[in-house]
Amino acid sequence: MWKRVHSKTFTGVKKETVWKILTDINNWHQWHHDLEYCKLEGPFEVGNHFMLKPKTMSAVKIMLTEINHGSSFTDCTTFFGAKMYDTHALEQTPEGLKLTNTLVVTGPLRWLWIKLVAQQVADGIADETENLIALARKHT
Q1: CA-to-CA distance for 96 and 93, rounded, in angstroms?
Q2: CATH number of residue 43's parent domain
Q3: How many CB atoms within 10 Å of residue 81?
Q4: Which residues pair with 77 in a beta bridge?
Q5: What sign has the CA pseudo-torsion 130, 132, 125, 28?
């Protein structure tokens, strides 16, 4: 198993606002600047999937596997011989709103998918989180 965690606490944003933006998958391109599009098939609920199209790669199908409304959700991308799980969590703390993103890759070919996809995803999480918070501050 390969795992990368990014966590940062922000002040001046409301948890509800960030959750609303984070779960509005069809508009991820507003703060994921490397995306051509992202399209959720059906409502935001476990078992549904979305198609995510990076600007430099083919579209991938991503399944919603766990949702704790208002606090976290996990999605899963299935590759040949590996799975990549991405958990997005929000926690209100005395210091502010803590956002944590946990990326996990499992499976016998994880080494290949880490090299091809997961490391690039992990490398972009800090910037994407900052972009998400900047958008949330405009809506607060």
Answers
A1: 5
A2: 3.30.530.20
A3: 12
A4: 62, 84
A5: negative
Q: Tokens at residue 74, please? A: 């996990």
Residue 56 — pLDDT band, cuts 50, 70, 90? Answer: confident
pLDDT tens digit sequence for 65-89: 999 999 999 999 999 999 999 999 9
Query: What is the DSSP pairing of strand 2-10 with strand 96-106?
Result: antiparallel
Token output for 122: 């992990």
The span from the CA of 139 to the CA of 126, in Å, is 20
Q: For 11-54, how does the pLDDT look when each residue is reduced to its tens digit (9 = 90+)?
A: 999 999 999 999 999 999 999 999 999 999 899 999 999 999 99
Can you list the positions of beta strands (E) in 42-138?
49-54, 60-68, 72-79, 82-93, 96-106
Counted domains in the chain: 1
Burial class (CB in 10 A: 0-12, 13-18, 19+), 139: exposed
Enclosing domain of residue 85:
2-139
**Is this prediction's pTM over 0.70?**
yes
